[in-house]
Amino acid sequence: MRFEVFGNAGGQGRKGSMQTWVEEGYAIFSLEGPSSIQVERVARSLGKNKSGFYYFFKDRERFVDCLMSEHLGRLNFIARQIRDIQDFDPEYLHLLIEHREAFLFQIQLLRNREVGLFESISDQFSAKISAAVIPVWSDYLDASVEVADRLWSMTRDTISSRATKDSFTFGWLLDVVSEAKLIASRQSSQTVAC
User: Fold this and answer.
1) pLDDT digit string, tens, across residues 9-33
2) CB 57 within 8 A of CB 63
3) Is 111 domain-assigned?
């Protein structure tokens, strides 16, 4: 899926296009983290010359800034889709799988949050996703918004700490959210018993 954050920034000639470079860098970052964002690595992955990189981006720092803009663009798109969800399971889980690359990118930001830019972008992403998902998550858990918010934080952290490119599957995500639902139901039954 293309998000065209930068519009039509150049043709598809020998240098590629700005969007092509960003999409490739985004994919690499999502799977391998920020240390993998090296001019030569991205150029080789695209089958392009490094001069194409410098044609569009002054330096690696500018390229990373463009990756962060791409991530925020994807965030806005995903948040709009979340607001249309009627049922958390399976709709939200399918949405996670559909946007797997963005969520893996987010996990890389979290794992490297000692970099101020990564922490800032990660916080923006988490806050916007949480705001969009809490209403449907609360319904899914059959819990108050307060309980749902706390369980969402725990579930999000669990996903972030345990997810890998191989484990990020529908079944695995279903197991993680089912644990949260079980906790919510136990908490609810203990509250009723008191």
Assistant:
1) 444 556 679 999 999 999 999 999 9
2) yes
3) yes
